[in-house]
Amino acid sequence: MPPANLHHHILDNLKTAILLVEPNLTVSYINPAAESLLAVSDQRIHGEAITHLFHEDEDTVVKLLDAINNREAFTKRETVLTLRSGDEITVDYAVTPIVEHPRTSLIIELQPLDRLLRISREEGLLSSQQNSKALLRGIAHEVKNPLGGLRGAAQLLARELDDPRLHDYTNIIIEEADRLRNLVDNMLGPNKMPNQLPTNIHEVLERVRQLVEVEGGDELSIIRDYDPSIPDIIGDREQLIQAVLNIVRNALQALKQSPPEGGAQITLRSRTLRQFTIGSHRHRLVCRVDIIDNGPGIPEDLAPSIFLPMISGRADGSGLGLSISQSILNHHQGLIECHSEPGRTEFSLFIPVEQNR
């Protein structure tokens, strides 16, 4: 095999995305890994300006021309590139000048980071959830024991009191002790393991839709965008309804507090993902449910802690709904993620279709 063909063959079989850029910043070659990453074909992009392939916030052209003119390599870390499709990817990329007098070309190596960053973020989220649960179990133990003694003492005191009017005070003690015990139980999330049975995710979503449509009235528009090919998942139908309902109700309450100009809208969307990683575990098939609203968004300072118990953006909120939903998904080996900005808040539920026994 001639050297030129051998080099071409090697580049074609690399897992790293490689681009060859001419001195006029047109693309003369991209390997299959780059075609896959950038969602283009070598034939269609051949001879086009690299700015037609992607762009970033900084001026890409200036940096590349500097590399050509000064013949200096450079590397950028965790850069967000916007593709011609409008999608965004996060990459590390390295630019290396190839000097062939009197011309200088560039080799650009792209290393995608989206999956690595998402895995790191999810592992952090799962670790935070587990640490929170461990802390809450300790608090629950320390709170519920004295509450039990307090309640028992109030019951004994009530039996010794002859004046029925004084029973009102002992009843208050008993009722408040029960309320605090229930609050602690709710903070811990579901106290039973899910009843794992084949479950149609769209039956779950339709049940939630029916409940929320009654609460939202005519001012709320619910859009359904379902993938009918999704197979049954293995899960607890009632717990999954509760998990989805908590999120959708939060969206409804945010929309009621700050109604958008075009009308309140919630989208329920379902999709499948193949060979998808949740935390550190790779699953053959995952069901993704997106709950999207056009409300005011989650305050930036609140966003990192929304899944922790007792955290709420509303004065009248308990701060338990999202924590309980996350616990339910964890019991199903799944996870909930959130991306929010003014005008669009998206909660994504990832549930393995076939769970590891």
Write up what this structure looks like.
The structure is a single chain. This protein is α+β, with helices and mostly antiparallel strands. Helices cover 41% and strands 28% of the residues. It is built from nine helices and 13 strands. The chain has helices at residues 3-12, 32-38, 42-45, 60-70, 114-160, 167-187, 201-216, 237-257, 321-331; strands at 17-21, 27-30, 54-55, 74-83, 88-100, 103-112, 197-199, 220-225, 233-235, 264-278, 281-293, 335-341, 344-352. Strands 2-1-6-5-4-3 form a six-stranded antiparallel beta sheet. It has a five-stranded mixed beta sheet with strand order 8-10-11-13-12. A hairpin with a 2-residue loop joins strand 5 and strand 6. It is elongated, with a radius of gyration of 28 Å. The protein starts with a helix and ends in a 5-residue tail after the last strand.
Strand content: 25-35%
Form type: elongated
Number of β-strand runs:
13
Kindly name the structural category. alpha+beta
Rg for CA atoms:
28 Å
First-residue to last-residue Cα separation: 51 Å
Q: From N to C, what is the helix and strand string?
A: HEEHHEHEEEHHEHEEHEEHEE
Largest sheet: number of strands, sense, barrel closure: 6 strands, antiparallel
